[in-house]
Structures
1.
Amino acid sequence: MKHVISPLDLTVEEIDRLLALADDIIDHPQAYAHKCAGKKLATLFFEPSTRTRLSFEAAMLELGGSVLGFSSASSSSATKGESVADTVRIVGNYADVIAMRHPKEGAAGVGALFAKCPIINAGDGGHQHPTQTLTDLLTIHRHKGRLNGLTLCLCGDLKFGRTVHSLVRAMMRYQDVRFILVSPDELRMPTYILDELDAGGFAYEETDSLEKGLAQADVLYMTRVQQERFANREDYLRLRDSYILDGEKMKLAPAEMIVLHPLPRVNEIAPEVDDDPRALYFEQALCGKYIRMALILTLLEQAGGFEKPCAAQICTREKTALPARVLEVLQGADPAGVQLPERIVNAVCCKNPHCITTTEQGLAQVFTLADADKGTYRCLYCEHEYQA
Amino acid sequence: MKHVISPLDLTVEEIDRLLALADDIIDHPQAYAHKCAGKKLATLFFEPSTRTRLSFEAAMLELGGSVLGFSSASSSSATKGESVADTVRIVGNYADVIAMRHPKEGAAGVGALFAKCPIINAGDGGHQHPTQTLTDLLTIHRHKGRLNGLTLCLCGDLKFGRTVHSLVRAMMRYQDVRFILVSPDELRMPTYILDELDAGGFAYEETDSLEKGLAQADVLYMTRVQQERFANREDYLRLRDSYILDGEKMKLAPAEMIVLHPLPRVNEIAPEVDDDPRALYFEQALCGKYIRMALILTLLEQAGGFEKPCAAQICTREKTALPARVLEVLQGADPAGVQLPERIVNAVCCKNPHCITTTEQGLAQVFTLADADKGTYRCLYCEHEYQA
Amino acid sequence: MKHVISPLDLTVEEIDRLLALADDIIDHPQAYAHKCAGKKLATLFFEPSTRTRLSFEAAMLELGGSVLGFSSASSSSATKGESVADTVRIVGNYADVIAMRHPKEGAAGVGALFAKCPIINAGDGGHQHPTQTLTDLLTIHRHKGRLNGLTLCLCGDLKFGRTVHSLVRAMMRYQDVRFILVSPDELRMPTYILDELDAGGFAYEETDSLEKGLAQADVLYMTRVQQERFANREDYLRLRDSYILDGEKMKLAPAEMIVLHPLPRVNEIAPEVDDDPRALYFEQALCGKYIRMALILTLLEQAGGFEKPCAAQICTREKTALPARVLEVLQGADPAGVQLPERIVNAVCCKNPHCITTTEQGLAQVFTLADADKGTYRCLYCEHEYQA
């Protein structure tokens, strides 16, 4: 555990240890109040996020450390065209651990390739936001006493919701977890996640009724339904109210159910729900501070092995030769009998317009073999599948 | 004293104690250097203000505490539409006390309704800026040795000047205070403040001559005359120089008079005045740091009773029924014989375009009975009178 | 050494002591970890610069002090028209030392006139950036063991490059230093610097070949060649590659040569050079932290004598009478036999559009006699020669 870029970078055992450490910090805050004295956290926020940034900063301060950084790209040298790789190498001279948020997918992964200190991904576009997932797990675990055997009802934008995808994948590592997926038809959970649920043998059901979904839930996870996701305003207005949690709907929910939300909310949870004891989204933000304390502490205690960042293994001058047969597979041909390289470097470009490779200078284009049977490759940074 | 939203939230005794504490901090800074160790101040500045923010931050640092926050809305989640109520609830998980500046009137009051930690209003639009008033009182008290028996000459924009209105009202709680009100005709002190002076039996005079005004003053309080307040540029240019304090005018002032200014100044005090020993506006900024130390310390020592923020008492679903007779009173009819409700909830809206209710989601519209004899109501947040 | 505005404000002995102190800090960081406990650094960045700001902040934190400030003008009161002089006087109440970056030339010098605490110039437009020069000197000294007897190859934009001009002038105070000046014809080193080299008896050569230049160098100092410096894009594209340092060119360089760059780079050093042990630009950023620690520590230990800032000596009402003969000299006439005043106040204006006098209110226009034989004057702030 050198860097934390994706929630799945952590094993179940590592997550268990983080949750236990967070619990111990909550119970004995004084014992941790000076653990990071003399250490510095850099918060590199290339796009603003109050909650995430302040939660990291509060975490470091409560460990006795100090904080420096920037809160938006406009107050950083990114406006001068500096690459993420250079920023991270320089800031590694000034800080002991870096929390980084960036609008491009894969940005934190690029940081991890070049950094001489631990990098925590604090959100890279629509890609990953592991400390949110850890926050969700801690909140659930503290209130349910377990992560196995739970029924999670996920509601809202299940198509584009990064936090929801991460949470589902994180929970799929536990036993007897059931999912109820509540969304309008336009915003259903992507097929590739449903495929993963099927492959793992997890029970799930899809519905467009929040009332129906929450009736059976241990955990209700709300997310926002954004107007811009709909083709026309009429559809949005018609559907919106169905996905607003209010006092009436809470009457239908189990007495022990807990309500989570990654925040910020706009109007998807009515204010009257805030005073319901089952509404835990503000306490969830508090859990976010404690799990970040646990994570910073763990990374700093384990820090080491940064002498030779892995970027040294990627030669920007290297170029994988692509025989005609491999090119055909990349264009969709049957891979049977073709010897596919494990890695393709600087031969094809990532087509994802939000990938960090579209803006980062001097970065090798790298794809790794994702599925030899299907002949699919994934971008090393944003993890999007290669498209011909 | 849980929160400080308006200077009048504090009793005269509480102000006395704050001034005495600030004096003691000035005399014995080392005794206070670790008083807030392990505590955190959040500076939530939804609009920028160098002096106010840095003065709060310096105050907390000199108490041994630490600071987090943001310095403009563009680097906060407010750009994602998060409400003040939610921001304050979340940040209450990360900090022990919040200093908040917001462009909307009543914003800090909304914060106080929802926060689980003390809120200090660091300026809410044209509404209140209590720590500026406390700064003014401390500076005057330290240099005059008293707040009773003083003649204050207030000069400049007395119509829109928030700091001037607050200072007058704060000084009206002391004995034998006289006011000389120097302004162009366009920018005279509002009638409702003159009415308060009359009602309190305070001597005051209005004049358009700064020379005449300062000749009798113990304290000269300068403010800026902004061009945009005038209907045409000619009037502005004609009048402007009369309200610029320069070396010549200082020759007419008493030897013991002190000059204050809330800063920033643009050109209303000529640079040559800066070296006059009576010019105290930079020392005033220093007093601002010490009174904020006293305030933070006092609020943190008293902090408690935040388990159930008062917002819980305002049901956003509640709606006051307004009988026809009450509606008529709201529209200007004689209130005689009408049973007026103490509070009107979600029945009428605040018409002040700068009120926080114009932007804050999920906030109940609340008016409280201001004057039963006149049948007037005030907005709970921005304190503007209800207008039909 | 009250303030550090220009690298030449420091004597060679003062620089020697700073370098020795930085070396000692590097060797014994723990001995310095609490040296500035209770002290505060204000970072006033009127324009953004991640590296410089974070390096100052890390420096102060590693000395046990704390930091406040702003990272761009948009989050400061400069947007309200506050002068640098007022900002610095106010912030002097909140901090013990100020690091200031400003887009206008001479801004830090104006700060130093008014401040009651030490000011460090962290870059004032195209004028000076002394901590960058000190960083360069520390990096060279640590890796070469000396500053005398070195051959420096400077490459790129030598015409507009502020850091290059400062470094040349700083190195001209040492013995047996040779300069190789590599640039396209459009961006050659300005004549006045070549004149200084000639006057000092320094060996130098100009060339447009980086290959040729680096073959003899002890130190290669790279800078960026910006497209906007060229009259047309063709010239830029044609020349650009000649000034990009890559793996091929590094093969021609001496084994002991070191490569420096003030950063951020855009594409003038190819990524493959980063792994070359001679590439020291990231370590240079680390040296930047240590030299700033040495500088902050030294300034705070020596701090004193700020009771009466020198601005008091410049009367904004003063106006130098200019006899016809002096006016003629200002317009280019022969100064022979004319009694020229040492200082001209408020009689003529600085014509440099980037001078702080173009924006700062209430600042006296001051020119000092630069060369009595030639009859030339220099602006006190931006040091540009007066032009009729």
2.
Amino acid sequence: MSGLSPIQGVEAAARNAQDAARSLRGATSGAKNALLVAIADALEDQRGAILEANARDVEDGRASGMKEGLIDRLLLTEERISSIAAATRQVASLPDPVGEVVRGQSLPNGLLLRQVRVPMGVIGMIYEARPNVTVDAAALALKAGSAVLLRGGRAALHSNAALVDVMRTAVTANNLPADLVATIDEYGREGGVALMRARGLVDLVIPRGGAGLIQTVVRESLVPVIETGVGNCHVYVDRAADLDKALAIAVNSKTHRPSVCNAAETLLVHRDVASQFVPRVVQALQGAGVTVHGCDKVQALASNVVPASEEDWETEYLALDIAVGVVDSIDGALSHIRRYSTGHTEAIVSQDVAAVREFTSSVDSAAVMVNASTRFTDGGELGLGAEIGISTQKLHARGPMGLAELTTTTWIVEGDGHVRI
Amino acid sequence: MSGLSPIQGVEAAARNAQDAARSLRGATSGAKNALLVAIADALEDQRGAILEANARDVEDGRASGMKEGLIDRLLLTEERISSIAAATRQVASLPDPVGEVVRGQSLPNGLLLRQVRVPMGVIGMIYEARPNVTVDAAALALKAGSAVLLRGGRAALHSNAALVDVMRTAVTANNLPADLVATIDEYGREGGVALMRARGLVDLVIPRGGAGLIQTVVRESLVPVIETGVGNCHVYVDRAADLDKALAIAVNSKTHRPSVCNAAETLLVHRDVASQFVPRVVQALQGAGVTVHGCDKVQALASNVVPASEEDWETEYLALDIAVGVVDSIDGALSHIRRYSTGHTEAIVSQDVAAVREFTSSVDSAAVMVNASTRFTDGGELGLGAEIGISTQKLHARGPMGLAELTTTTWIVEGDGHVRI
């Protein structure tokens, strides 16, 4: 404990992070990769201390009546630490975004122009009680040449402190300043607010967690924020769909991993194929344990369908529930999506090029799937490498945010005494 | 007057703009270019009405004691209207950013992946009493496929109303919805606040004006903002500079157009060349009418130098004033820049590759000039076409913001029944 107020403490941490970030700005990819490998090794070497700290958090969680689902997110095991270390090594193996020349040309007057990726500086991360995010976020930030300030969930306090401790020691052992990685958890909730207010000291805040956390950060932050991850994703089965593919895509989109943001929450079926497709898909979904909430037409076509209310169309269930509706046309599907989508991912299943063209040009979301599962909106699946989250906003980053999205750019203009006339 | 409260009125305008933007989303470049040419023609055809409205604003301005510099910014003439129309035609001639495939590949599993530029949706513009911004902003937004909500300075109320009226008529005549271009000036200051709060309805707000306006918008807005244009730009003359080039660059950076954000405000000179360079550059600057504010060493080396205070290093003069300091090393220059820069543009004059490499890799600004005037940080000069402002923030856009920066992207993923395994 430092004896500083939360605002003083966070501002001091941010200034230290800014200073530390400078030493990483010019670091080679080799040096950054060596650091990440050293962090991975240290996490495995010191798993004893990490597991001990984690056991305290889990015990506290159980004592305060935390649900088993949340306990499971919080829990670390030897295997989980190894997989966190493996993910860190994987970040080391990704191409370095820093130094990439994004655009460049020589101008008519002889000026040589290039736009180059450079580190962001200091990245703040506000997240819930998932200790793996502590290391993931630090690894991605470091690889992108930035320092990271971590504000984790209170329930993971001891785990995060242990993980940060291990990482800082590894940073120092690699002759870099420890303040490249720091937690502000000791300053509690007020510290989180101070982080969001530290405009000019912190370059970017990324909230990662439930809709409530994200909305709070978006509302409160003066530091630029990237909104992540709320996904009320739709699958639209067109009149010209291959219904076998539609069935596989609908079931996969819903059930492959229901708790994540790219899972489908609503299925819309064109009326021309409804009588053929709805009974099949409802049965398949119910067979996979899904509760189907349907409109009147769906209720008429299949059994055991719960009536869907307005709320169902709005809800990101993140569970084995789905809302199913019949629409009169592709326009009906598009206007439903416009009304209820959170702008994450929408899919169309159709063999008709005109329908596909209309859907892809009209839907205003981060990703549009054509004859593919919504579950493909994922940095790893799309070949972007590790991701720090999936942005559902339109500025800076949209969709899976990889290393490139954690950088900014500088224009470098080389002349030979050039002045404006 | 609509009888709505400012919040109701602005929200209604934003919804109308959203609806209107949809019809522009799929518009061809040809259709958008024809619209812009029609707007340009209409501005010239109806210059009588525009000049009449502008005369009212100018008269009101004079009556309320507005300074002549501001009156000049507000004033429209036949010639100025022609140059606004010409700028609109120039936007029509630029390549369309919408539809550009930014990245793309086919993935190992056969998914075809592309990241495509798409329109932002609704862009809000908050600016001061410069009627040309009304048309510039609308032209850029329309070309980028978005609707625009304009909140101009109160002093240009009648001018802006007339310009918007002409543009809306031209939009309608081109079979597009008038609400692609709208002013919310009738809702006054509260309307501006409502615009900043309209998150979810408005996709982006760009403030354009003085530091006070920009800071207010950054602080108050819930809609994502791009910060533009505050430039405390530095020129550093290295020990290895070609001093003739340095002289030309320093004078050009300061005096070519002192009132704009890419003008230099501070000159830093390496001590090894100070006794040779400072007297020359001070004399040249003073000969061009510049007041030189200098550190002790500069005062000792040249005459008629005003002592520079802490405030001078911080000030964006936007006038024929410059702060001049002698630094002990390139590190001294870098740490001065770190402390006082607003992150817009810094220049180095040097023939030494090591110094250039250090400077370009250490300076954390939107643009770095090497042996060139700071005045080149400009969309037109850098070959990006027209610009809507110069971003000094790190997210989304950094440096001159052209058409591409007014768009967002969507990932389009085409499969053939692909599901995740």
3.
Amino acid sequence: MVLPIDLLEVSINREVSLLLKDGRLLKGKLLGFDQYMNLVLDEAREEKEDSERRIGKVVVRGSNVVSISLM
Amino acid sequence: MVLPIDLLEVSINREVSLLLKDGRLLKGKLLGFDQYMNLVLDEAREEKEDSERRIGKVVVRGSNVVSISLM
Amino acid sequence: MVLPIDLLEVSINREVSLLLKDGRLLKGKLLGFDQYMNLVLDEAREEKEDSERRIGKVVVRGSNVVSISLM
Amino acid sequence: MVLPIDLLEVSINREVSLLLKDGRLLKGKLLGFDQYMNLVLDEAREEKEDSERRIGKVVVRGSNVVSISLM
Amino acid sequence: MVLPIDLLEVSINREVSLLLKDGRLLKGKLLGFDQYMNLVLDEAREEKEDSERRIGKVVVRGSNVVSISLM
Amino acid sequence: MVLPIDLLEVSINREVSLLLKDGRLLKGKLLGFDQYMNLVLDEAREEKEDSERRIGKVVVRGSNVVSISLM
Amino acid sequence: MVLPIDLLEVSINREVSLLLKDGRLLKGKLLGFDQYMNLVLDEAREEKEDSERRIGKVVVRGSNVVSISLM
């Protein structure tokens, strides 16, 4: 079995895509996470219809995250 | 009695369909889960009206899941 | 006093009707449940205005359930 | 002081009216409850504008309940 | 310092006004409360624009309460 | 480091402004708080576009509070 | 691995940008935080389309925060 935490661990220092509860899509390099699935992204950017907003280093609270996918 | 965790265990490596709170429908092969019902899907895709979006490997947070059905 | 868990136990292997938070109505045979009121239904189907969608075996997360009634 | 649990206990086998978070109004005989205020009603019915829907025996999850009043 | 529980205790047997999350306003005599701020009101009534609905004895779940004010 | 609880403690008996989840703005003198950030305000009033509603002594549940600022 | 708490610690006394669940954007100097990610900002201001509102010292409850980014 692949535990959720296992997939997060192999994703460290790789590009991930976060879908948030409010529909926002964040991409960036996963630097770390804790037991609440709070996540740290580097070089994060929010992707919109036809543009992107650069955010840089960011902590995203796990309670707002729907899914985390490896890119 | 069939516990929820029993049905998840027999679903490992099989195709499942997740209904999310925001109405999204995700399908993919269940690779694993934890005690919060956070789930790992492989070859995940989001099914829409008349198309599908390929997502690949993904962690879905249990708090956003309404139901998990065996396909 | 009839505890909620008592009514669930006598409902095992019987038809139940679940009302979900998003207004959906699921019917099926109750196979089991856990302490969070996560439920397992067999031969589940979602009833809509004038049709029904067959779902089969499904785990429904308790946090999305409003009520469980015996049919 | 009258604790919430005290009022529920004297309400056993009496008619109560439940207001749910989604605005629904359920009436029925209170058969029991647990520490999460999950409730069991017998002869439950949902009251609407000018009709009522008979539900029978039902478990209502406490997290969806706004108030419980003695009728 | 006046703890929230201190103000509730001096409010026992006095008229209070509850603002609920769904915007409803309930008034009544506070009979008691528990550690989750579930409350018991006597002679409760819901105040609306230009009328009031009499509810009688009621348990209000704390998770639906925004504020409790002394009248 | 200034802990959230430190700022609340120095705010006792001073005017604070509470932003609630439903957008309401409450002002008043902070009398106390507990570990859930339930708060007690004295001489509370709700500020609206061009008027204010006097509320008096009030317990505000922490789960409805977005932010607490010193005035 | 960079834990979320690590990034918050290096952000102390630096400018951060908070995205709240209701879409509000708060900026200010991070003075501190606790284990629930309740945050203390100094010289906080809310940024809107084409203006900003000065808030001063503020406690922001972690449960309302979507993300915290270093500026």
